[in-house]
Write a structure and sequence with these properties.
Number of strands: 7
Number of helices: 9
Strand order of the largest sheet: 3-2-1-4-5-7-6
Structural class: alpha/beta
CATH class: Alpha Beta
Radius of gyration: 18 Å
Order of helices and strands: HHHEHEHEHEHEHEHE
CATH topology: Rossmann fold
CATH architecture: 3-Layer(aba) Sandwich
Amino acid sequence: MTDNPTDTRRMRPIRSFVRREGRLTEGQQRALDVLYPQFGLEPDGQAFDFDAIFGRTSKTVLEIGFGNGESLATMAKNQPELDYLGIEVHRPGVGHLLMRLEEERLENVRVICGDAQEIVKHQIPDASLFGVQLFFPDPWPKKRHHKRRIVQPEWVAQMAQKIAPGGFLHLATDWENYAEHMLEVVSANPDFANQAGAGNFAPRPAHRPITKFETRGQRLGHGVWDLLLTRR
């Protein structure tokens, strides 16, 4: 053991997010107080039993970093045969999604407010997921920050461990440099097959909603790159 603070800092895990906690609206605070006990799961390190959590046997899709939850709620509404687990570190986004779940009377979504990397590592059983979605993660555009990007070889290997054979990994970004990085990383993992063919990006699938942020970006001429991969 060391008392050297420099050594302690080196042992800290690299985070792919920064907490930029905005102010909660009254509706979001109420949702966290009243609805989180109904739809929320605790990041307590205990392995999840999805059949028990959702009260049925179905396929579970994990979305990491769902933002305000609009896309997740829409997908859950349009695909009621699937169960969705969303993880988001920012409380205003969690509160917003909870409000949508109440408005739409959705029962096939559960929410966790916490660090996705720790939750996936300790609480998601191996081969228990039908799919994983990661839409528009922080691109960390500065080169010195690229190590903070969530899509790294170790992360893709972890997703292969958690996704059942025949399941999917769906990535999307509006940063071309990050898209190229994603493509390079996933192409190097033999456990995934690119649905669009080796070295190719996929057209946006109809089931992924277009967000307001994405629409605004398209008006400004920004591109969007989707990667759809199948777990071998």
